[in-house]
Amino acid sequence: MFSPEGPSLRELAVQALSSVERGYDLLAPKFDHTPFRTPDAVLDAVGAVLRRTGPYDAGLDLCCGTGAGVEVLAGVCRERVTGVDFSAGMLDVAREQAGPAGPPVSWVRADARALPFGPSFDLVVSFGAFGHFLPRELPGLFAQVRSVLRPGGSFAFPLVAPPRPGSPGSWTLLGFDTVMRVRNALWRPPFVMYYRAFRLGDVRRELAEAGFRVELHALPEFGRRADGSPRVRLVMARLPD
């Protein structure tokens, strides 16, 4: 799963026994060489949809990590792009990398649950970060996103369909979540990363309650499941004008 440039098993163990913030600070120099980075195929597919629905003026990458999503925003935003993350280490790596062509980019260290912005963005995106939020935190998280969007603004993120119950993928996710729950019951500080906690039905309900109108865009590049439903969707949540 990991390239030779990625973290060793020992490094991963140390990171897993840290807090989420400290763990990502430690992982940051090698993060782009792990499976945790959003694949380019997903970034490209999301960018294609956003180019059709845009252009946008100002964009925010929520939980930006080392900045892969910022490159997507740079291709669809005209005025400025901001990446926000609570890991100083991840932001340091993002700053060091060559900036994408396009509008000016700024990097801000902050918690997604307490964003330090007013309603100044037209588009917010996020890639692969929601496993770090417990289901009870979704209302507050979505309220924060709404608070930084201008009227008519959009919140977009890809969502992978869950594996079929009883499949190897399903058992893998269940096993991972079980290990994390045991770890958090026995060790402090907790490391919140649960891959089975972000379900489409719950997400749509919480977005609607936060005042968003939700649209789903299939990403055909990733095919369909046996029941005909898309394997990957782009959730587009829009605010009224």
From TrEMBL:
<feature type="domain" description="Methyltransferase">
    <location>
        <begin position="60"/>
        <end position="153"/>
    </location>
</feature>
<dbReference type="InterPro" id="IPR029063">
    <property type="entry name" value="SAM-dependent_MTases_sf"/>
</dbReference>
<dbReference type="GO" id="GO:0032259">
    <property type="term" value="P:methylation"/>
</dbReference>
<dbReference type="GO" id="GO:0008168">
    <property type="term" value="F:methyltransferase activity"/>
</dbReference>
<keyword id="KW-0808">Transferase</keyword>
<dbReference type="InterPro" id="IPR041698">
    <property type="entry name" value="Methyltransf_25"/>
</dbReference>
<protein>
    <submittedName>
        <fullName>SAM-dependent methyltransferase</fullName>
    </submittedName>
</protein>
<dbReference type="Pfam" id="PF13649">
    <property type="entry name" value="Methyltransf_25"/>
</dbReference>
<keyword id="KW-0489">Methyltransferase</keyword>
